[in-house]
C-alpha cells in the first residue's frame, strides 16, 4: 500500500509552480547560452519547445513527487540529441564521422569527460596531457571539461552519471524497453568491475602514454567519432567498440533492465564514485520505515542497492542519485538527504535543494543540443537533408 | 660511478616502472587483502623476482652488450613468451581459488622445500616477468650498462637501477590499510583478469608481429 507522499509540493499546484519559476530563468539562460537567437521561425519554435519541455519536466517532478520518471525523459532525450548534433557537426566539419591522423596531429579531437581517468597519472609522470585535444580553444576543450568535471563532482558526486552525462541516456533508455527483465539474477559484484577497469586503464595509459580507453574500448565511438579504418589495428578497434556498444549499451541493458555500461564498465563512473563521499547530497534509507521488500534492490539500475546497504541505511558508493529507488519505495523509506542535517526531516527541502543543481546540470548539457537538434530535424523533414 | 648512475636512472624513471609493474602487482595485493606487514613481504617477493631478472639482464648485457637487443629472438620472441606466461599466471590466479597451505603440508614437495605456495609464487613470478619487460627505462638501462664493458660493472649498474626504481614500490604495501573492504578483493580479481587479457594480447601480438 502506498503511503502519502513525503514531499509538501506533491499535489500542490501553486507551490509547485512557484518553485518552478526560478527554473524558468535558468532554462532560458542555459538553453540560449545568454544569446537568444530568434532569427528564424525554426529557431523560435525549437527554443519554445525546448523551454516548455524542460520546465514541464521540472514542474512535474515537484507536483507528482516523482524524480526518476521525469529525469529519464530529459536524460534520454539528451543522449539522442547529443549524438545527432555531434554527428551532424562532425560531418559538416570533416566530411565524415571518422578522424584521420591529420586531425590527431592538429589536436582537433573533442575532449570527453571519460578521458579524465587516463590523463591524471601521465600528467604527474610527464607533465604533459596525452590527449590530442585543444587545451583552451574550440569545442569541448580540455580545460573547460576538466573544470566542469571537478565542479560537478564536488557538487553532485556521481549524480553526474544520471543527470549530466551525455552518454548515460543510451543505456538508461534501453534498460527501460522491456517491462520485465529476461535475465533476472545478475551478480551485483559486477559493479566492482568498473573499478578494476579504471585501475588498468589508468595504468595502461601511463605505460603507453595514449588514452587506451578511447583508443580501444569506448562503446560510444559508435555514435560519435572513431578512427578512420586504414589498417588491421584500426579495424580491430572498430570491431571492439561496435561489439561493446551492441552488448553493453543495447542488448544487456534490454535483457537485464540495468544500466550495464554505466554500472559495470565505465571507468569515469568508478572515479566519480569516490566523489560521492565528499559532496553534500546523498540518498539515505530509513531502516524503521523499510519493510524489507527489496524492491529497491531489484529496481536499482546500477546494482548500488544491496542487502548490506539496506542494513547500513544507505546505498553503495556507486549510487548515481537517479531517484528510481525513491520513486519505487512504497514505504517512503528512501529519500535524498543533505549531509550534516538531521535525518528523517525536511524531505522536501533536501530534495528540492538537490533537484535545482541536478536539473540545471541536465539543462546545461542538454538544452543547446535539444534546441539545435530540433532545428536539424525540421531541416531534415523540410529539405530531406541535415546540412 | 656506475652504481650512482644506475641509481639515478632508476630514481628518475622509477615511476614509469611502477606503472608498468602495477597491472601485475596491484591486482594481486588488492585481491589478497593482507595486512600491511604481509604486503611488505609480498612486495619484497615481487622485488626479489625483479632483482633476479635484472641481475640476469646485467650478466647478459655484460657479455653481449646491446647486441642481444638487436637479435630477433630477444626482440620479439622472449618478451612475447614472458607476457604470455605472465598473463596465464594472472588468469589462473583470478579464476581458480588457491588454498593457502600450511608449509608443513607440502614439505616433501619442491615448492614446500622452497617455502613457496600458490598464490605466494605469483608475486615472485610476476616480479621476474615484469623485470624482463622491455619498458623504456629498462632499455635505457641496458644501453647505459653495456658501456661498462664487463659483467661485474653491468650487474652493479642493474642492481643500482633496481634500487632506484624500487623506492617507488614502498607505498604499495599500505593498500593493506583497506583490507577490511571486501570489495577490494573482488576488484583485485577483476583487475587480474583484465591485466591477464592485456598481457595475453600483448604477448601474442609481439610473437606474431
What does this protein structure show overall?
- The complex is a heterodimer of chains A (387) and B (209).
- With 387 residues, chain A is mainly alpha-helical.
- Chain A folds into 3 domains: 1-96 and 346-387, no CATH class; 97-279, no CATH class; 281-344, Alpha-Beta Plaits (2-Layer Sandwich), CATH 3.30.70.
- Chain A is 59% helix and 4% strand.
- Chain A has 17 helices and 4 strands.
- In chain A, the strands form 2 sheets. In chain A, strands 1-2 form a two-stranded parallel sheet. Chain A has a two-stranded antiparallel sheet with strand order 3-4.
- The longest helix of chain A is centred in the last third of the chain and has 37 residues, at 347-383.
- Chain A is globular and about 60 Å long.
- The model of chain A has no long low-confidence stretch (mean pLDDT 88).
- By secondary structure, chain B is mostly helical.
- Chain B has one domain (2-208).
- Residues 103-108 of chain B have low confidence and may be disordered.
- Chains A and B meet through helix 5 and helix 9 of A and helix 1 and helix 9 of B.
Amino acid at each position: 500500500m502506498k503511503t502519502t507522499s513525503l514531499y509538501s509540493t506533491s499535489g500542490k499546484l501553486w507551490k509547485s509552480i512557484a518553485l518552478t519559476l526560478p527554473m524558468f530563468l535558468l532554462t532560458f539562460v542555459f538553453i540560449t547560452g545568454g544569446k537568444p537567437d530568434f532569427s528564424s521561425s525554426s529557431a523560435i519554435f525549437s527554443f519554445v519547445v525546448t523551454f516548455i519541455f524542460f520546465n514541464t519536466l521540472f514542474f512535474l517532478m515537484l507536483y507528482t513527487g516523482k524524480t526518476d520518471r521525469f529525469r529519464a525523459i530529459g536524460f534520454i532525450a539528451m543522449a539522442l540529441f547529443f549524438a545527432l548534433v555531434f554527428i551532424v557537426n562532425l560531418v559538416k566539419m570533416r566530411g565524415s564521422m571518422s578522424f584521420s591522423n591529420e586531425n590527431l596531429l592538429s589536436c582537433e579531437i573533442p575532449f570527453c569527460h571519460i578521458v579524465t581517468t587516463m590523463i591524471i597519472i601521465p600528467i604527474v609522470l610527464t607533465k604533459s596531457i596525452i590527449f590530442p585535444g585543444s587545451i583552451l580553444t574550440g569545442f569541448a576543450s580540455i580545460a573547460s571539461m576538466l573544470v566542469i568535471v571537478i565542479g560537478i563532482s564536488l557538487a553532485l558526486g556521481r549524480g553526474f552519471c544520471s543527470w549530466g552525462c551525455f552518454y548515460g541516456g543510451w543505456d538508461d533508455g534501453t534498460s527501460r524497453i522491456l517491462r520485465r527483465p529476461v535475465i533476472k539474477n545478475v551478480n551485483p559484484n559486477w559493479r566492482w568491475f568498473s573499478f578494476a577497469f579504471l585501475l588498468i586503464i589508468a595504468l595502461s595509459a601511463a605505460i603507453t602514454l595514449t588514452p587506451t580507453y578511447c583508443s580501444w574500448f569506448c562503446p560510444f565511438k559508435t555514435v560519435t567519432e572513431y578512427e578512420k579504418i586504414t589498417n588491421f589495428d584500426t579495424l580491430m578497434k572498430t570491431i571492439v567498440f561496435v561489439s561493446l556498444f551492441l552488448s553493453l549499451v543495447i542488448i544487456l541493458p534490454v535483457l537485464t533492465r540495468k544500466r550495464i555500461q554505466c554500472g559495470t564498465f565505465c571507468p569515469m563512473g568508478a572515479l566519480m564514485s569516490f566523489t560521492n563521499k565528499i559532496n553534500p547530497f546523498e540518498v539515505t534509507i530509513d531502516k524503521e520505515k523499510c519493510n524489507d521488500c527489496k524492491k529497491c534492490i531489484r529496481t536499482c539500475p546500477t546494482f548500488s542497492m544491496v542487502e548490506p546497504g539496506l542494513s547500513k541505511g544507505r546505498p553503495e558508493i556507486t549510487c548515481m542519485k537517479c531517484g528510481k529507488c525513491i520513486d519505487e519505495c512504497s514505504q517512503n523509506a528512501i529519500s535524498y538527504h543533505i549531509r550534516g542535517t538531521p535525518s528523517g526531516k525536511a524531505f522536501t527541502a533536501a530534495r528540492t535543494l538537490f533537484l535545482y543543481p541536478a536539473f540545471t546540470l541536465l539543462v546545461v548539457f542538454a538544452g543547446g543540443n535539444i534546441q539545435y537538434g530540433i532545428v536539424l530535424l525540421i531541416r531534415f523533414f523540410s529539405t530531406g537533408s541535415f546540412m | 660511478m656506475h652504481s650512482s648512475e644506475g641509481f639515478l636512472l632508476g630514481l628518475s624513471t622509477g615511476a614509469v616502472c611502477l606503472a608498468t609493474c602495477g597491472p601485475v602487482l596491484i591486482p594481486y595485493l588488492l585481491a589478497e587483502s593482507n595486512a600491511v606487514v604481509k604486503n611488505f613481504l609480498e612486495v619484497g617477493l615481487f622485488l626479489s623476482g625483479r632483482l633476479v631478472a635484472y641481475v640476469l639482464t646485467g650478466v647478459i648485457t655484460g657479455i653481449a652488450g646491446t647486441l642481444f637487443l638487436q637479435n630477433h629472438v630477444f626482440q620479439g620472441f622472449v618478451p612475447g613468451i614472458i607476457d604470455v606466461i605472465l598473463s596465464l599466471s594472472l588468469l589462473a590466479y583470478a579464476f581458480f581459488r588457491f588454498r593457502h597451505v600450511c608449509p608443513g603440508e607440502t614439505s616433501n614437495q619442491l615448492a614446500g622445500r622452497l617455502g613457496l605456495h600458490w598464490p605466494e609464487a605469483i608475486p615472485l613470478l610476476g616480479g621476474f616477468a615484469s623485470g624482463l619487460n622491455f619498458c623504456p627505462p629498462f632499455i635505457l638501462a641496458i644501453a647505459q650498462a653495456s658501456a661498462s664493458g664487463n659483467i661485474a660493472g653491468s650487474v652493479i649498474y642493474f642492481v643500482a637501477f633496481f634500487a632506484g626504481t624500487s623506492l617507488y614500490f614502498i607505498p604499495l604495501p599500505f593498500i593493506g590499510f583497506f583490507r577490511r573492504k571486501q570489495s577490494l578483493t573482488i576488484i583485485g580479481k577483476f583487475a587480474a583478469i583484465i591485466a591477464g587479457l592485456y598481457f595475453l594480447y600483448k604477448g601474442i601480438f609481439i610473437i606474431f608481429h
